[in-house]
Design a protein that fits this description.
elongated; Methylamine Dehydrogenase, Chain H; alpha+beta; Prp46/PLRG1-like; four-stranded antiparallel sheet; disordered N terminus; 16% helix
């Protein structure tokens, strides 16, 4: 390829076009830029009052380290913004400035040591080194000093003999630099409890047995199921005594009054009914819930009824006048269980929002919220003689101390959706899962001494072996469970069991959770 030059013009253009610009034109442009910057400063000088180096003409012999006009312009912009927007916080208050000055003065005074103190410390250090050397005759000079060595206390489990075991015994007067085995928290050994065995199976319902209630005389008990009926059974023989009909949906809660011949029931049809057991008829209706009612409880000393359900509130009713005394709010999802007691907190409720709330009944306000659970809390159970209660969520059972709701311990091992809890006076707690698993626990220590699976009745599916409700009778020697196979099962302790025939299977757990 051949380069062709046009006649009268060079073959290549000039490499520096700035050389062709006349000097007068360059000076005129610089003067115009400088005058414009000066006028701009004069316009805004009242606000900024920041001196600018652009007021003076550029010096041709300026040092290369001087800031460029672009840097000066950026600095002027930042200074103007600081003066305009951060004027009130540019300087610290005088009191804070004085405090910092005093602190710095005190720190400087501490750093200054008198010469006598330094000499005394040097002599003390030299004496300490001489004593340390005198206490270790025969040792090499390059050994680690005794005060800086990590030694292991002899006599502990798993301790090994040090390499210089045949030499002089090292002193152990420096506990801060010794490895000492920390004493573990000793766990209380659980009491022995006899195993529980199935005693009787009661059939009669045509749906899941979702509710149970014991009569104060311990003669009979009531059950509610998905067949919309309430049945009353004889506790001694297990025979059916009475069937009550009136609900149009699944019966979810039952309660028997200890002072009146009344039976209370709630169901998914939004209805709360009061039955007169002398006439076997409904005498009162409690209207107010906006959705299904899933749980209910009676106050032990007052004529007050508490109900909760899918609308996420606990409603307090006057038993006689049917008036709604309080609406205890706070839960964000379905209220699953309610327990009551005579002292504050008189109402405790659990919800599927994974919280447990404690209420002041007189004020109608929340006293405390327990947020330890990670999933929905489906069951609550209060100890009959102690101020403690337990709450259950899928895979977790926690024990709490009243009245503040202090956490006590975890019951570990029941890895299923726990639908029901029950506790008796002998410190035996029962937990029932939706997969048919049954657990018996020692209330004091949280030890599970029995675990088995409930067997569905013949003709039912294996998936119907689920525990829906449970309760102990007043003696605590009979356990009644309502199950998904439409049966009611009665359990009782094995009378022939002894500590020799059924020894306690327990060992301290090192990985037990504490929250």
């Amino acid at each position: 390829m051949v380069d062709v030059a046009i006649q009268g013009e060079p073959a290549f253009p000039a490499q520096n076009d700035a050389q062709n610009i006349p000097p007068k034109t360059t000076l005129r442009a610089s003067d115009a830029v400088r005058r414009s910057a000066k006028r701009t400063r004069e316009v805004f000088a009242a606000d900024f009052a920041q001196p600018s180096a652009l007021d003076t003409p550029p010096q041709p012999d300026a040092a290369p380290s001087d800031p460029s006009p672009q840097d000066l312009a950026q600095m002027t912009s930042v200074s103007a913004r600081v003066r305009n927007e951060y004027a009130h916080v540019r300087e610290l208050p005088p009191a804070l400035v004085q405090k910092q000055v005093n602190a710095q003065a005190g720190l400087a005074a501490k750093r200054k040591k008198p010469k006598a103190e330094e000499q005394a410390s040097d002599s003390a250090m030299a004496k300490m080194i001489e004593n340390a050397a005198a206490q270790r005759p025969g040792q090499q000079t390059n050994c680690v000093p005794q005060s800086m060595a990590l030694t292991r206390i002899q006599g502990t489990a798993g301790a090994k003999e040090p390499p210089n075991a045949h030499g002089p015994t090292p002193q152990r007067d420096t506990p801060s630099t010794s490895l000492v085995r920390r004493d573990t928290v000793r766990q209380q050994k659980p009491n022995w409890h006899p195993p529980w065995k199935l005693f009787r199976v009661i059939s009669g319902h045509l749906g899941w047995v979702r509710a149970l209630a014991m009569e104060p005389g311990n003669q009979w008990f009531a059950s509610g199921a998905g067949d919309r009926t309430i049945k009353i059974w004889d506790l001694a023989t297990g025979t059916l005594k009475l069937t009550l009909t009136g609900h149009i949906s699944t019966v979810r809660g039952l309660a028997v009054s200890p002072r009146h011949p009344y039976l209370f029931s709630c169901a998914e049809d939004k209805m709360v009914k009061c039955w007169d057991l002398e006439t076997n008829k409904v005498i009162r209706h409690y209207h107010g819930h906006l959705s299904g009612v899933y749980t209910m409880a009676l106050h032990p000393t007052l004529d007050v009824l508490m109900t909760g359900g899918r609308d996420g509130v606990v409603r307090v009713w006057d038993m006689r006048t049917r008036s709604n005394i309080h609406v205890l709010s706070g839960h964000k999802q379905t209220v699953s269980s309610i327990i009551t007691q005579s002292t504050d907190p008189q109402v405790i409720s659990s919800s599927l929002d994974s919280t447990v709330r404690m209420y002041d009944l007189a004020a109608g306000k929340t006293m405390g919220v327990l947020t330890h659970h990670k999933k929905g809390v489906r069951a609550l159970a209060a100890h009959p003689t102690e101020w403690t209660f337990a709450s259950a969520s899928p895979g977790q059972i926690k024990q709490w101390l009243l009245p503040k709701g202090d956490f006590m311990q975890n019951f570990e091992g029941h890895n299923s959706v726990i639908n029901s809890l029950a506790v008796n006076e002998d410190n035996v707690m029962f937990s029932g899962g939706d997969n048919g698993s049954v657990g018996f626990w020692d209330w004091k220590t949280g030890h599970r001494f029995q675990y088995e699976d409930s067997i569905a009745q013949p003709g039912s599916l294996d998936a119907e072996a689920g525990i829906m409700s449970s309760m102990f009778d007043l003696t605590g020697l009979r356990l009644i469970t309502g199950e998904a196979d439409k049966t009611i099962k009665v359990w009782r302790p094995d009378e022939n069991a002894t500590e020799q025939s059924h020894p306690l299977q327990w060992a301290p757990s090192l990985g037990r959770r504490k929250f």
